[in-house]
Write a structure and sequence with these properties.
The chain is α/β, with parallel strands linked by helices. Helix content is 33%, strand content 18%. It has 13 helices and 14 strands. Strands 5-4-6-7-1-8-14-13-9-10 form a 10-stranded mixed beta sheet, sandwiched between helices. Helix 10 crosses helix 11. The model has no long low-confidence stretch (mean pLDDT 96).
Length: 417
């Protein structure tokens, strides 16, 4: 069944907190200017760490979005989730009332949740004993509490839970929230993801996998998807969110519609814990599923925001997956990785990249893949090297792939009556 036969789901608000900026506009401007958000880690002493760089959030004031007393009882990833949902609500002009609250829900994805809180708790037990553990530790670290706290603070009584699929988490959250609205189980959904993993355990554990870049002397050049000189991804954090609405609900209240979600694909590689399936077969099926659900052909896709993490196998097989799904059109469609600028925001990446797709549709400009010096011959598509490009984007596809073989693909479209 194509999506035209179902309820239409539109985007009326967006929020973003990223290494590039603490809202959508500042993050977007930095991206189309090709600026990197990567720098030396300042949250902890990196002297003993091989990787000393990351995509930190700078200058974010959570007290703009929630009371200080409440914030002290939340992990940072929850702070970011609240911030982006409040931003999306403000942009949308949605007034939450006793009448509509039961029809508005929240799905927030996170790959890891409150890892910093868990780390602090372990150190407290070791150094001071279990009697010194805060009673708020569990609600601070649980992944579902991002969605839970947003619903409490905003009074949202509709469907409410977490989506956890590693680096696909927030793309899955947006896709599943779209399906909830299509099924008629909600009129509106806040959907996205949040992550706060630039901490000692985050850097140490991903470093132990030999997954992280160690280009410590040139942090702004460290994240380099599709480039032969890459040496791993750059761990980053932040959040992104959409306010999704049933079209009739949005129109009845006179909302400004930013774009429409028309396609969603979700598949599994069933192959390996961390490596993508050889040849990208699972990702290709997810792309085809998203296009089929939207009633689209490959040539209808004008831009792809790639998963593009900065690791050779991921990008080789994603390139193969795009070719498998789009055929000859794969060589004609621009494919960029904004992780070259944001770093890899893990469970928040898909939502952040979906926001960039909507901005590309609105403004007719595609953000670049920066740090392209020596193109990897295995990645031979149009990767929009180093400079943004003016393109009329009617439809944009966003790819997300997570450890465990999770694939999620979203297609956003310029809204037309």
């Amino acid at each position: 069944m194509g999506n035209r036969e179902r309820r239409r789901v539109v985007i009326t608000g967006m929020g973003a907190v990223s290494p590039l900026g603490n809202d959508v506009e500042s993050s977007w401007r930095a991206a189309i200017e090709g600026r990197s958000g990567i720098g030396p880690i300042t949250r902890f002493d990196t002297a003993r760490f091989e990787t000393k760089i990351g995509g930190e959030i700078r200058g974010f004031n959570a007290e703009l979005y929630a009371p200080a007393k409440e914030l002290r009882r939340m992990d940072r990833f929850i702070h970011y989730a609240i911030g982006v949902c409040k931003q999306a609500a403000e942009q949308s002009g949605l007034e939450i009332t006793a009448e509509n609250a039961p029809e508005i829900g929240v799905l927030i994805g996170s790959g890891i949740g409150g890892i910093e809180t868990l780390t602090d708790a372990v150190l407290t037990i070791r150094d001071k004993g279990p009697g010194k553990i805060s009673p708020f530790t569990i609600p601070m670290l649980l992944t579902d509490l991002a969605a839970g706290q947003v619903s409490i603070l905003m009074g949202l009584q509709g469907p409410n839970y977490a989506v956890v699929s590693a680096c696909s988490s927030s793309a899955h959250a947006i896709g599943e929230a779209t399906e909830i609205i299509r099924r008629g189980q909600a009129k509106a959904m806040f959907a996205g993801g949040a992550e706060a993993t630039v901490c000692e355990v985050g850097i140490a554990t991903f470093g132990a996998m030999r997954a992280l870049s160690t280009r410590n002397d040139q942090p702004e050049r460290a994240s380099r998807p599709f480039d032969k000189l890459r040496d791993g991804f750059v761990l980053a954090e932040g959040a992104g969110a959409f306010l999704l609405e049933d079209l009739e609900f949005a129109q009845a209240r006179g909302a400004k519609i930013l774009a429409e979600v028309v396609g969603y694909g979700a598949t599994a590689d069933a192959s390996h814990v961390t490596a993508p399936a050889e040849g990208g077969a699972g990702a290709a099926r997810a792309m085809r599923m998203a296009m089929a659900g939207a009633g689209l052909k490959p040539e209808d896709i004008d831009y792809i925001n790639a998963h593009g993490t900065g690791t050779p196998l991921n990008e080789k097989y994603e390139t193969m997956a795009i070719k498998g799904a789009l055929g000859e059109h794969a060589y004609k469609v621009p494919v960029s990785s904004t992780k070259s600028m944001t770093g890899h925001m893990l469970g928040a990446a898909g939502a952040m990249e979906a926001v960039f797709c909507v901005k590309a549709i609105q403004e007719g400009i595609i953000p670049p893949t920066i740090n392209q010096e020596v193109p990897d011959p295995d990645c031979d598509l149009d990767n929009v090297p180093n400079e943004a490009r003016r393109v009329d984007v009617r439809r944009a596809m966003s790819n997300s792939m997570g450890f465990g073989g999770h694939n999620a693909v979203l297609i956003m479209e310029r809204f037309e009556e």
